[in-house]
Design goal:
Number of helices: 8
Radius of gyration: 17 Å
Distance between the termini: 53 Å
Number of domains: 1
CATH architecture: Orthogonal Bundle
Strand content: under 5%
CATH topology: 434 Repressor (Amino-terminal Domain)
Order of helices and strands: HHHHHHHH
Structural class: mainly alpha
Length: 149
């Protein structure tokens, strides 16, 4: 019984790490432009979205312009405010048949995540945010070390 539980936990972690690797490669500019595209399609102003998600105007503007990468929990709030799923928010406006298999796999995982309960999603978002933060820190330190040499 304990081995089965351990195996399930290990499998879940492997899937999450794979998912994180795919998410990290998705750029802030892509996400920001998608958010803006969806917001404009819904005829909503930035102010309306900002009010709904309780975020500062400057921060939201940086997200939409691709200057800042939002956390997954922020993306979930924005998606809810825009009345779309997280999948729809990060999906490009091109049809899904035009994207490669890695992107299709990512979109399917996002769809499956939406079926999880709130606690499970929150756990995944926290883990993703931690991995993304770790990558950003590693990249920043690498750049600093490169500048020093």
């Amino acid at each position: 019984m304990k081995f089965k539980l351990f195996f399930i936990i290990l499998l879940k972690r492997a899937l999450i790490v794979n998912f994180v690797a795919q998410i990290v490669n998705y750029t802030a500019m892509d996400i920001g432009s998608n958010i803006k595209r969806v917001r404009e399609a819904k005829n909503l102003s930035q102010k309306e979205v900002i009010t709904a998600i309780d975020m500062g105007a400057a921060m939201y503007s940086r997200i939409e312009s691709g200057k800042t990468e939002p956390s997954l929990s922020t993306l979930e709030k924005i998606a809810k405010a825009l009345g779309v799923s997280l999948t729809e928010l990060i999906q490009s406006d091109e049809s899904m048949s035009d994207v490669n298999s890695v992107d299709k796999s990512l979109m399917e995982k996002v769809r499956l995540m939406e079926a999880l309960n709130d606690e499970e999603r929150k756990t995944i978002y926290t883990m993703l945010d931690a991995f993304i933060g770790k990558k950003k820190l590693k990249d920043a330190l690498s750049n600093v070390l490169h500048d020093v040499h």
